[in-house]
Design goal:
The complex is a heterodimer.
Chain A: H1 5-14, H2 21-38, H3 73-77, E1 83-84, E2 87-88
Antiparallel strand pairs in A: 1-2
Chain B: H1 9-17, H2 23-41, E1 44-47, H3 49-64, E2 75-79, H4 106-113, E3 117-122, H5 161-168, E4 174-179, H6 185-191, E5 194-197, E6 217-222, H7 225-235, E7 265-269, H8 279-294, E8 298-302, H9 310-325, H10 343-354, H11 357-370, H12 376-398, E9 403-407, H13 419-423, H14 425-429, H15 436-441, E10 445-452, E11 458-465, H16 470-484
Parallel strand pairs in B: 2-3, 2-4, 7-8, 7-9
Antiparallel strand pairs in B: 1-3, 4-6, 5-6, 5-10, 9-11, 10-11
The chains are: A mainly alpha, B alpha/beta.
Chain lengths: 95, 493
């Protein structure tokens, strides 16, 4: 499988990263280099092998379903680029 | 005063306890050393002298009142990946511009609870993606080591390049670091320092900026094996805020030092003898084998047949997880925002301006391998191969092997702005060829300096252990350290 310019632009769109024509062209070569490198995995026989979901065999610990945190709206918006009365502000989404 | 910075953590602890020195004196010595060296080394991106002085003063008070913690008064550097309350935390990325968290990471909180002093935040590859510290938004770190008779500036390795350089140049007594594919062990090897990536789950990941969540693990970089053992004991903990942190007792790692390795079985995997490996690395490996044999260990040849697939599998799993983890940087909740004509345009422009080239490349790879139609061929296949890599290790341990000895890196430190590496991302990725298997299998691995190459640059050996048997690694690494000695760069900065 090889990556072409249209694929790079589609993936950049999915990843929400604006790319210039020049960057997209450069990425075609770089991504193909990496994809070629990882392609060798296809030669491994994985018949009957389970995909790894956790490196350590463990049951996920569950905590009590209780409120342990909160009442800190000021802290949560403190680092936001634009806020108003503890709301995050974004450009208009609905006309 | 400057001699205070040459004390190891164990030595400083003894002098602080016996009141031969004060924590304030020790901290002042480090602040002075940083002021003198940082413009050259660029290990720190933020220095917090006022905070350090206040913490040191509080340490002296606790020492006076007999309430000293395990790391009381010890000045540490913190990798910029750890959230530190009210202090610059940006994973050395532009996209987190101005971010000052309102909370503290569990690992750093553990250190402060034990009395440690924070000197500042350390440089690193952006979002821990890199093997040379050159992807940092804050510029490269310069390795305190130089080749004999050469003035060329070398990289300290990465991604924890600031941590390794600061420890090697005595700009902190020890440092926190993180390791996703080799980011503790490779820079430790490049700077003649000791770095341990503990078993996945040993340290809480809470408050550590996420790169690849199934691989990320915090650990220390220190001047010697003892200091690494002291630091890990404080850093490790079970944490309600990270469900992957394990509820197992934390041993007194320091107590493992000095124990004999007589009768231990050390595995030598033939797959780590890679084509084109410099002769110096092979010689170092043989030297390590001889050290352990002389100490009474039994050396056995083992096979880890899926080793060559670890790096390609890593470059599917890690970018896939990164593309998901880094989706949160959208210009809404924190950091940089670049305005656009609508919300999608704002996202795209913010991420284009905020992420560096390597980070974008990995997000793109991750998005591609997870996209419709490719998931099974890449991600699922990689997760199955990961099972096989882990099984290789399990079979070796099941056959009686106690620890595995390998080189830590395929070369010594290379030059800043190496053209071959800059133009070929895969060549840079090969730096992690010996370390990445350990992350894929969730095992503990330690890098310990074991000698110098023909150019006079440090080289490290790696020991890989069974899950949660870090004590075995400290014990064995200590034997290598005793035989090989310690390595300090000649001061030129």
């Amino acid at each position: 499988m090889s990556v072409d310019l249209a694929t790079v632009k589609r993936v950049a769109r999915l990843a929400r990263i604006a790319v210039s024509e020049e960057e997209a062209n450069r990425m075609v070569g770089e991504l193909n280099g990496i994809i070629d490198f990882v392609e060798q995995l296809s030669e491994v026989d994985v018949t009957g092998v389970e995909p790894m979901t956790s490196v350590t065999p463990m049951d996920m610990r569950k905590r009590t379903d209780a409120v342990t945190d909160g009442d800190k709206a000021d802290d949560i918006v403190a680092n936001a680029p634009e806020t108003d009365r503890n709301f995050f502000l974004v450009p208009k989404v609905v006309e | 005063m400057t001699q205070l910075t040459s004390l190891t953590i164990a030595e400083a602890r003894e002098k602080l306890t016996s009141k031969a020195i004060t924590a304030v004196e020790l901290t002042e010595a480090y602040i002075g050393a940083i002021e003198a060296a940082n413009a050259t080394i660029n290990a720190y991106i933020t220095v917090t002298p006022d905070k350090a002085r206040a913490m040191a003063k509080a340490s002296d008070e606790r020492i006076a009142s007999g309430k000293a913690g395990a790391l009381e008064g010890i000045p540490l550097g913190i990798k910029d990946l750890f959230a530190t309350e009210g202090v610059h935390t940006q994973a050395c990325s532009h996209i987190l511009d101005g971010f000052k968290p309102k909370y503290e990471s569990t690992v750093t909180q553990n250190l402060w609870d034990d009395g440690a002093v924070m000197l500042g935040k350390l440089n690193m590859d952006e979002f821990a993606m890199g093997s040379s510290n050159e992807t940092s938004y804050y510029g490269p770190v310069i390795n305190p080591w130089k080749a004999e008779g050469s003035n060329q500036q070398l990289v300290p390795g990465g991604s924890s390049g600031g941590s390794a350089a600061a420890v090697a140049a005595h700009l902190c007594a020890g440092a926190t670091a993180t390791d996703t594919g080799g980011s503790i062990r490779q820079p430790a090897a490049f700077t003649g320092t000791v770095g341990i990536k503990p078993t996945y789950g040993r340290c809480s990941r809470w408050g550590t900026v996420a790169f690849a969540s199934s691989l990320d693990q915090a650990g220390p970089i220190a001047r010697d094996v003892r200091d690494a053992a002291i630091l890990l004991k404080s850093m490790a903990s079970v944490d309600a805020k990270d469900t992957t942190s394990v509820d197992l007792p934390i041993p007194d790692y320091e107590a493992a030092l000095g124990q004999s390795v007589k009768g231990m079985k050390i595995g030598i995997p033939k797959e780590y003898r890679v084509e084109g490996m410099p002769e110096d690395i092979e010689k170092l490996w043989q030297k390590g084998i001889a050290y352990l044999k002389d100490a009474g260990a039994e050396i056995v040849d083992i096979t880890l047949p899926h080793t060559k697939y670890a790096l390609p599998a890593y470059y599917i799993v890690a970018p896939a997880e990164a593309s998901s983890n880094l989706a949160r940087y959208d210009g809404v909740r924190y950091g940089l925002r670049v305005d656009g004509k609508d919300i999608a345009d704002m996202y795209e422009k913010t991420r284009a301006a905020g992420f560096g080239t390597e980070v974008k490349r990995r997000i793109m790879i991750g998005t591609y391998v997870l996209s419709a139609g490719y998931y099974d061929a890449y991600y699922l296949q990689a997760q199955k191969v990961r099972t096989l890599i882990k099984r290789d290790f399990e079979l070796a341990f099941h056959a009686g092997v106690d620890a595995i000895l390998t080189p830590a890196t395929p070369s010594s430190a290379f030059g800043i702005a190496d053209e071959n590496l800059a133009n070929d991302p895969v060549a840079m990725y090969l730096n992690d060829i010996f370390t990445v298997t350990v992350n894929m299998a969730g095992l503990p691995g330690i890098a310990v300096p074991a000698g110098l190459d023909a150019k006079g640059l440090p080289l490290g050996l790696q020991l890989i252990g069974k899950p949660f048997e870090e004590e075995t690694l400290f014990r064995t690494a200590h034997v290598i350290e005793q035989a090989a000695g310690k390595f300090t760069p000649a001061k030129w900065w």
